[in-house]
Structure formats: C-alpha cells, structure tokens
Specification:
The structure is a single chain. With 164 residues, the chain is α/β, with parallel strands linked by helices. The chain has one domain: HUPs (Rossmann fold). It contains 6 helices and 5 strands. The protein has helices at 15-27, 47-57, 73-79, 92-109, 127-135, 146-163; strands at 3-8, 30-36, 64-69, 84-89, 112-117. A 5-stranded parallel sheet has the order 3-2-1-4-5, with helices on both faces. The longest helix has 18 residues, at 92-109. The model has no long low-confidence stretch (mean pLDDT 92).
C-alpha cells in the first residue's frame, strides 16, 4: 500500500490545498493530511478546528485521513510508516524553499518528496492571502469551500474586533 502525507498549517484550508489532496488521493492508496503545529505562527483557527474542517471537506475522498503533528515532519513519517511527502508548488519561490526541505528530509530519514504543481486557477492562492483579503471584507468565496466560508467570516470579524 502506498501511503503519503500532505502536510501544512491549513489555516484555513483552501481550494489550492484541496486540489493537491484530491489529486494525491487519485494516485495513492492513502493520503494523510497532517496539520502541522507551528509555534511561530499565530493561527486563526485551533488545530482541532482545522482538523474538523478538513475532515468535513474531504469526506468525498474515502482514502484521506486527517491527523496533526508537532515536531519534525520526517519523524511523523517514520513513526507512521509514510515514505513520501506530497507538496504543492505555486511558484518558483515555493520550489526554492521546498527543494531544501526535501533534501534535508531525504538525508535525515530517507523520506522522499513528490512535488505537484498547483492547478493554474489556484496558483496565487494561500491561506495568508485568504485571511488578508477576508479581514478587509473582500469576497473569499471562490477560495475556500462553502462549508467553511461562514466560519471564516465569523472568525475574521471576531479577530478584527479583538484587535480594535
């Protein structure tokens, strides 16, 4: 059985993330979406909320499971017998960083990285951009799944009120 991991912060999950997850699920037997805990980032949603939202929007893919991890991704891979990391690339700037990460992951634990180019319709999309546009009242409905849109708007409004 070929098992892979699609890691990220997914704060929130976007159609760009879902594009990579869907395509990976059509190729591999099992896709683990790993919500990585990043202590340096201030997240909009808790890890538990992100896991729940990802589970909601990936129910159409029976071979996708969602988990979380705090620590080195390669340690998660080794602990869970996952030989491949799948990463989406939007632009050459993603590649520069991801290439270095893939090389260190291979050296540290022998874990391979497969790069998938993001569909052109989503190549500009990131969770950070969605949060930025949404925080100013911009329409982000074409960037996130409808199931999450109201939660995102509510959380962004709450966040803005707390900062005022």
């Amino acid at each position: 059985m070929r098992k892979v991991v699609c890691p990220g912060s997914f704060d929130p999950i976007t159609f760009g993330h879902l594009d990579i997850i869907a395509r990976a699920s059509s190729i591999f037997d099992e896709v683990v979406v790993a919500v990585l805990v990043n202590r340096t980032k201030k997240s909009l949603f808790t890890v538990e909320e992100r896991i729940a939202m990802i589970r909601e929007v990936t129910t159409v893919y029976p071979n996708v499971v969602v988990d979380s991890w705090s620590g080195l991704l390669v340690d998660y891979c080794k602990q869970n017998d996952i030989p491949i990391i799948v990463k989406g690339l939007r632009a050459i700037t993603d590649f520069d960083y991801e290439l270095q990460m893939s090389q260190i992951n291979l050296q540290l634990q022998g874990v391979e990285t497969l790069f998938m180019s993001t569909a052109p319709a989503h190549s500009f999309l990131s969770s950070s951009i969605v949060k930025e546009v949404g925080s100013y009242g911009g329409d982000v409905s074409s960037y996130v799944p409808p199931l999450l849109l109201e939660r995102l708007k509510t959380r962004l409004a709450l966040n803005m009120n707390q900062q005022s």
